Structure formats: structure tokens, C-alpha cells
């Protein structure tokens, strides 16, 4: 049976846009209080439906926590990920006065990486902050089941160490930005995020559930890869169980336990994702989109699409294209 990579298949079917917005070198005590990403997402990444935040600790130590939660200690090489973009605090040193990070927004909107230097004269911490913008399907696929805050040390693998080194060099470069620098930083931010997911997935305890746990499962992972590779295929529980190399009953039970939904319900969501992407990226008629997404009629597609997105396909296409034009106009200013 062919080897599959469900994470790559899923990532290939969602829209990601990364960015680095802060390069900091601060001496303790220092601290930031950050509002939820949703507070500024419409300004920073207008075309993104969801925003993931991350902090890469390059040197020294720091702590991060969600409101009312225990702190998570960070050391060099750690990437702290906030999949839901929740409000949080990042600091080092006792008695650190927390600065509202939203004060950095005007500089961030200028498009350059904001450089912060200073602090109270104690031990130095160097870190890089960024975000990943994505469509809402990402939250329902590979972000599903993740804790609201977690860390991964990317220096434990050669790929992560290379990404960190390159990102650190580009983000801290004080020379005037050359052509394509911001685009390169964006791609490195995406690479860092994907490497973090890969590392987290490999370190998951066996008892964990969620999308990454399902993708790591050798049997269910094969079925996931097949679904994301060909969402329009007329999948049945039997044909998916064959992909997994299991009986239908055992496959359906394991799939549902890991992902929290039945196999054919998951297939339907993947088809909706494909349909949405075709509406955004092609001029195909709604009927053509419906057929290419695995539906036998336009009416069936319309009903399923409205259940998923709350609007019919034609209106969805109009709204998305209007939003993309507004985002493009905003970026040009």
C-alpha cells in the first residue's frame, strides 16, 4: 500500500499566509500583554478567516500564559503556539510591567518587521513573533484538538534548526529591506509553523485524540490522506476501510474516536472545502463546481453548502472576491 502524508495533503488544500511582525531583544524585566488576534486580524490579514499566533524564543528564557492559567516556561529553541490566537501574556523577570502589544499595531501595519530593544538591564531574551493566517477549514482540520497554548522545541531536528537560523538572520537584519525580503519571511513563517506541527505530531502521547493524532495513526492516516487527495471520489466506509487495511467496523470506530466524527461526515466537509476553494479560484458555474466537488446535482450541493457556510454558493463567491479585493487594496496603500 502506498505511503501517504495526510498532513501535507491537508495543508495543500487550505490557504495559509504567514508573516513575521516583531524581532525583540529585551533585558529583564520586560513583558507584553497581547489582546486576542481577532482584535486586529481584520487590519493585519484582511483575507484570513482565522489567525494563529506564535513566538519563537531565540535566546534566553521567558514565560507565556493564558489569562487565569499556569505559566508555560520557554527556553531557546522553543516555539509557543496559540492555535486560537487567544489573549495572553509574554514576559521575563519578576515585577515585569506588561506593555499592551496592540501599541505596536501602527508599526506592524506599515509592513516592516518591528524591532524592539530595551528592558530593565537583567538577563537578555531574544525572540521573534509572527502569525499564520488561514481559512476556517484549517481550524476544523489540522488545528482541531490542539490545546489553546503549547510549545515545541524545533532545535531537536535539523530542519527546524535550519528554519530558525535563517529566520533569525533575516528578521534581525538591520540593512534596508531588499526586494522580496518580506515575502521570504512570510514563507519562512509558514515553514516554521508546519515544522512545529510535524514536531508536535511526532511527540503526541498515544492516548491523545484530534486531527494530528489521527494523521499519525498508520491506518486512519492512510484513509485521511486518500480523502484529502481525492475528496470528490465516491468514498464509502468500506472503501476507506480498505485504504486503512481494516474491517469496516474497526475502522469506523477508530476514525470516530480519534476525530470525533464519522468517516462520511468528514468526507462531506472535505468536499465543502473543495467546493469553496473552486468558487474562490475559478469561474466555473455552480453546477460545474458541484460536480467537481463530488455532488450529483447543483441542488444537493447548494443545500449542503448553505448548511456549512450559512450562505448559498453564488453569494459566498461574491463575498469572498469582494473581501480579496479589499485586502489587495489595503495592501497597496
From TrEMBL:
PANTHER family noted in UniProt: ARAC FAMILY TRANSCRIPTIONAL REGULATOR, HTH-TYPE TRANSCRIPTIONAL ACTIVATOR RHAS-RELATED
Protein name per Swiss-Prot or TrEMBL: AraC-like DNA-binding protein
Xref: Gene3D superfamilies: Homeodomain-like
GO MF entries: DNA-binding transcription factor activity; sequence-specific DNA binding
Domain HTH araC/xylS-type: 221-319
Superkingdom to which the source organism belongs: Bacteria
Keyword Oxidoreductase on entry: no
InterPro entries per the UniProt record, alphabetical: AraC_lig (IPR032783), AraC_XylS_family_regulators (IPR050204), Homeodomain-like_sf (IPR009057), HTH_AraC (IPR018060), HTH_AraC-typ_CS (IPR018062), Tscrpt_reg_AraC-type_HTH (IPR020449)
Entries under SUPFAM superfamilies matching the protein: Homeodomain-like
Pfam families on file: Cupin_6 (PF12852), HTH_18 (PF12833)
Keywords, in A-Z order: DNA-binding, Transcription, Transcription regulation
Coiled-coil spans in chain: none
Amino acid at each position: 500500500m502506498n505511503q501517504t502524508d495526510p498532513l501535507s495533503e491537508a495543508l495543500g488544500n487550505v490557504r495559509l499566509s504567514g508573516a513575521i511582525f516583531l524581532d525583540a531583544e529585551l533585558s529583564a524585566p520586560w513583558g507584553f500583554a497581547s489582546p486576542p488576534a481577532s482584535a486586529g486580524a481584520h487590519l493585519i490579514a484582511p483575507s484570513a478567516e482565522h489567525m494563529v499566533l506564535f513566538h519563537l524564543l531565540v535566546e534566553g528564557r521567558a514565560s507565556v500564559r493564558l489569562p487565569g492559567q499556569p505559566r508555560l516556561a520557554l527556553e531557546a529553541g522553543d516555539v509557543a503556539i496559540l492555535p486560537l490566537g487567544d489573549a495572553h501574556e509574554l514576559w521575563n523577570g519578576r515585577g515585569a510591567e506588561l506593555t499592551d502589544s496592540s501599541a505596536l499595531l501602527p508599526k506592524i501595519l506599515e509592513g516592516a518587521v518591528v524591532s524592539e530593544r530595551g528592558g530593565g538591564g537583567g538577563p537578555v531574551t531574544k525572540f521573534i513573533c509572527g502569525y499564520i493566517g488561514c481559512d476556517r477549514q484549517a481550524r476544523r482540520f489540522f488545528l482541531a484538538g490542539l490545546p489553546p497554548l503549547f510549545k515545541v522545541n524545533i532545535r531537536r531536528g535539523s530542519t527546524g534548526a535550519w528554519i530558525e537560523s535563517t529566520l533569525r538572520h533575516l528578521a534581525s537584519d538591520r540593512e534596508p529591506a531588499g526586494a522580496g525580503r518580506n515575502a521570504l519571511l512570510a514563507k519562512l513563517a509558514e515553514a516554521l509553523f508546519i515544522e512545529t506541527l510535524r514536531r508536535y505530531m511526532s511527540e503526541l502521547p498515544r492516548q491523545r485524540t484530534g486531527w494530528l493524532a489521527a494523521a499519525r495513526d498508520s491506518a486512519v492516516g492512510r484513509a485521511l490522506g486518500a480523502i484529502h487527495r481525492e475528496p470528490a471520489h465516491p468514498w464509502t466506509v468500506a472503501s476507506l476501510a480498505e485504504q486503512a487495511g481494516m474491517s469496516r467496523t474497526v475502522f469506523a470506530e477508530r476514525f470516530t474516536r480519534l476525530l470525533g466524527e464519522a468517516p462520511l461526515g468528514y468526507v462531506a466537509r472535505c468536499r465543502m472545502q473543495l467546493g469553496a476553494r473552486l468558487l474562490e479560484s475559478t469561474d466555473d458555474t455552480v453546477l460545474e463546481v458541484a460536480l467537481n466537488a463530488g455532488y450529483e446535482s447543483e441542488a444537493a450541493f447548494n443545500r449542503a453548502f448553505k448548511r456549512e457556510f450559512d450562505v448559498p454558493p453564488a453569494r459566498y463567491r461574491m463575498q469572498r472576491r469582494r473581501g480579496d479585493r479589499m485586502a489587495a487594496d489595503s495592501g497597496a496603500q
